Every structure is written in structure tokens, then in C-alpha cells.
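Q: I'm writing a short explainer about ABC transporter ATP-binding protein for a general audience and would like to include a description of its predicted shape. Could you first generate the structure from this sequence?
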Amino acid sequence: EPARPLLAVNNIEVIYDHVILVLKGVSLSVPEGGIVALLGANGAGKTTTLKAVSNLLGAERGEVTKGTIELAGERVEELSPNALVRRGVVQVMEGRHCFEHLTVEENLLTGAYTRSDGGRAIAEDLERVYRYFPRLKERRTSLAGYISGGEQQMCAIGRALMARPKMILLDEPSMGLAPQLVEEIFEIVKQLNETEGVSILLAEQNTNVALKYAKYGYILENGRIVLDGDARALRENEDVKEFYLGIA
Ligand code: ATP
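A: Of course. Here's the predicted structure. Afterward I'll give you a sentence or two in plain language.
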């Protein structure tokens, strides 16, 4: 019998504004310690899926109207976003979302807001983030609004790490970044996964890079999962090659 997944999304439906049906029964799971990619074109419903998991749809007038979401076997649909952070589920939003008027270090410290352990542990974690992201250490006193896009993405991931997550929901980290920086960021994500055991659910339009780092992938089209499998199998799938990898 396979081990119980860390995250299980079971047949969820999401409706915006009471009428716009965007997810039409999406199921996926992330094993403990896994990296799973959620792939699909712009508008397929990737962000909506991640926001359903972290319960951030309310602010957008979206609602999960069917299905269940389980974290380590426990239902979590009713938990607030903060309660989910305390349970170890942290979302890194698309577009990076650092506080532009705060310094890099202040941004990182905001990531520890749900923690009740003391300043000492938080200071240690700040050093831990700087070990993963030496560029952020160099930039620690810069205002986040004035650092590069790649550094802002690092800052957003570093901020998530400050919450000591079990799982990071990473929304389109490659967006707007040069290929070399994309690789640099994915390498760090891979290290976090391998060294800290952080599980990753990654939404990406960049199928190539996502399937290089993920072990398993799901392809979302128009609010439905149309294909899923091991990353290697997906890379070799003819439809995936033709429609998502551009190397038919
Ligand atoms: P992207 O790469 O653009 O983020 P995505 O796959 O993440 O794409 P979503 O952002 O989840 O897609 O959007 C899925 C669908 O839901 C789109 O058709 C979008 O127009 C619609 N949608 C998203 N947010 C809302 C909203 N607040 N109200 C109504 N419709 C929305």
C-alpha cells in the first residue's frame, strides 16, 4: 500500500463570483518530500489550484464548491491561510510579492510572523536562508523594490522558508526571468527539497524546466487534469512534446 501523501486534492471544483466554473474536478497529490509540477497554459487554472490549497480564494471571490483537500490525511479546507502556514503550508505567489518599501532582511523577517519560537531561532533561520541565497545576504539592506527580478524571486522564496514550511506552493517562479537565473533558482529549490525535506508543489508554464526538476507532473487544461505521470514519461510523451515542449 502506498504511503499516505502529504497533500491530497480530491476532485475539487472552484467557482469565481458564484458563476464562473474554473476548476472542474481537479485531483492531485504530493508525497512527503516530493517535487510535483502542475503544468498548463496561461489560464488553465494552476494559480486557482494553489490558492484553493492555501485557502486564498476568498479575497478573489472564489470558492471551493466541491471536493476535499487533505494534509497528512486531515481535512484542511476550513483552515484559514494563517492556520495553514502554522501547519507548514506556505505559498509563494506569482509575481514575487516582496514588500518593496522594506529591506530584503525585513521582508525575510515578515515570513516568520506566525512563529511563536524566539528571536534566537529566527536569527538562525535568517542565516540559513542566507546560506541558500548568498545574493540575498549581499542585498540584505537594500529595499526590495530596487533589487533585480531574480533577487525578488529569491526573496519571496526565502521569506517562505522563514516560516519553516513542510510544503511550499510555488507559483510560476520562472516568470519573467532569464534562463540562467531560472536554473539558479530551481537548483536552490532542489537543494531545499533534498536537504531540508521541503515538499514542493510547483505551478509552471515552463514545462521544460519544471519537468527537469520535478519527479511527477500533472497537466491542467481548461480546469481539468488531462494527463499525469512521472516526469520522465511526460517528457517522452508525444502530446507533451508537441503541445508543451515545442520539440515535436
Ligand atoms: P496564469 O499562468 O495566468 O496564472 P493559471 O493557469 O494560473 O494561469 P488561473 O489564474 O488559475 O490560471 O485562472 C484560471 C481561469 O480563472 C482563467 O480563465 C481566469 O480568467 C479565471 N479567473 C482567475 N481569477 C479570477 C477571478 N478572480 N474572477 C473570475 N475569474 C477568474
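A: For your explainer, you could say: The radius of gyration is 18 Å.
Q: Perfect, that's easy to follow.
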